[in-house]
Amino acid sequence: MAGPIDLSEHENAHWEWQIDAMVRLALAKGLISDFAELRDGIEQLSPEDYKQLSYYERWAKSLAYTLVSKGAITEERLGQKVAAIRARQEAEGLR
Amino acid sequence: MSEPRFVKGQRVRIADRTPPVHHRVPSYAKGQVGIIERVCGMHPEPERCIRGDGKPFQRIYRVRIPQTDLWRSYKGTEGDKLEIEIFEHWLEPAE
Amino acid sequence: MSDHDDHDHSRTFQPDHPEPTSDAALVGLALREILIEDGHYTAEEEQAVIARMQGASPENGGKIVARAWTDPEYRQRLLENGAESIRELGFELEPYEFTVMENTDDVHNVIVCTLCSCYPRALLGMSPAWYKSNSYRSRVVREPRTVLSEFGVNLTDDVDVRVHDSTAELRYMVLPQRPEGTDAWSEENLAALITRDSLIGTQRDLVPG
Fold first, then answer.
1. CATH code matching the domain that covers C57-200, chosen among 1.20.1290.10, 3.30.70.360, 3.90.330.10, 3.30.450.20
2. Which of A94, B29, C19, C136 could anchor a disulfide with A89, C-beta 3.0 to 4.6 Å?
3. Mean pLDDT computed over C99-115
4. For this structure, is C117 an active site residue?
């Protein structure tokens, strides 16, 4: 962790803007009451996840964890949706 | 809106606790003594937000700590400081 | 726009935007589709948020700094109450306590959020990748002078370094020093001098010309 700092620039991909917007909208719409809920979700990530996931991947997982914990969505439905996206990507030759 | 418990310039000690939920005190700051650099406003206190105790507001203070107190072989001057924001319930008066 | 159209926007990814395929990113995309399907927000609202966030940039910081350099009373207000003074110039801010730290001949300020990379994105745009990195966040608090030298900022011992860790609800911006030889400059030209890194504190000297 404590090593030379990589100074290269990184433009957000479109999906990263979408994750960012989703977090802001979740807050604005009252799905989460405070940013603190999300930061708690980040701290719940496994050490491997925390090290390996990119910034927006961490936020995505954290928001999912938070909303499942609150009962706003179910883990089953999330899993089904992930499987559907994966299948579509395979069909479209993206994987 | 409550009266601030601490004033600018006052010496304070940051508590050394590890609550099970997300808390905003970095480990390097726990147990450290610093001075109040400024009294800030009232903000939702994250530990209670996460435990679902509504959105209680608490005062934040900026605490200034000499770097030479924080790190054993600090490379820099005696005047170098680290400044962090701490919620009131993490602070106690220090001599 | 009909519900059916919203549904389509949520499901089909726009063809000109590359898709991520990692497990975690798919969780994010899946979550997004569910939230849109359930009516928590619309694709249009999403676009509006993205457009607003994409509109934010260090240029906003440049305008604020240039005003502070040319108007001493504004500068005082900015240092005392950052949020109010920034809103005075017409910028929208999220409800954080905005704090501006001025660099002087004796003091250099640098900002970090060790816990999670907090940054005033709605005002200044996206934070740099390095700002979010584990190595910046862990090293700049412990060895700021070494880190700063890696950014090309070499400080002598008569300058003190203050590291500001954005641990709670405050957001920060550094007010850099006005460079020599710019006394006759317009606010517009002064604003153009300011860089993203000078507002974070990983750049100290701004170079005119």
1. 3.90.330.10
2. A94
3. 96
4. yes
Taking an 8 Å cut-off on Cβ atoms, the answer to whether C126 and A67 are in contact is: no
Dihedral angle computed from the Cα positions of residues A23, A29, A35 and A40, in that order, rounded to the nearest 10 degrees: -80
In angstroms, the CA A10 to CA C28 distance is: 19
C-alpha of C191 from chain center:
16
Q: What is the ipTM of this complex?
A: 0.93
* Cβ contacts of C72 within 8 Å, gap of 6 or more: none
pTM for the predicted model, two decimal places: 0.88
Topology of domain A16-26+33-91, per CATH? Cyclin A; domain 1 (1.10.472)
Give the pLDDT band of residue C3 (cuts 50, 70, 90). Answer: very low
Domain ranges (residues) in chain A: 16-26+33-91
pLDDT at B47 over 90: no
> Taking the domain B11-93, which CATH number applies?
2.30.30.50
User: Hey, what amino acid is at C205?
Assistant: D
- The two three-digit tokens of residue C170, written as one number: 């405050």
Ranges of each domain in chain C: 3-10+20-54, 57-200
Distance between A37 CA and the closest CA of chain B, angstroms: 6
DSSP sequence for chain C: --HHHHHHHHHSPPTTSPPP-SHHHHHHHHHHHHHHHTTSS-HHHHHHHHHHHHH--HHHHHHHHHHHHH-HHHHHHHHH-HHHHHHHTT----SSEEEEEE--SSEEEEEE-TTT----HHHH-SPPHHHHSHHHHHHHHH-HHHHHHHTT----TTSEEEEEE--SSEEEEEEPPPPTT-TT--HHHHHHH--HHHHHTS-------
Q: Is B94 on the interface with A (CB under 8 A)?
A: no
The answer to whether residue B89 neighbours chain C at the CB level (below 8 Å) is no
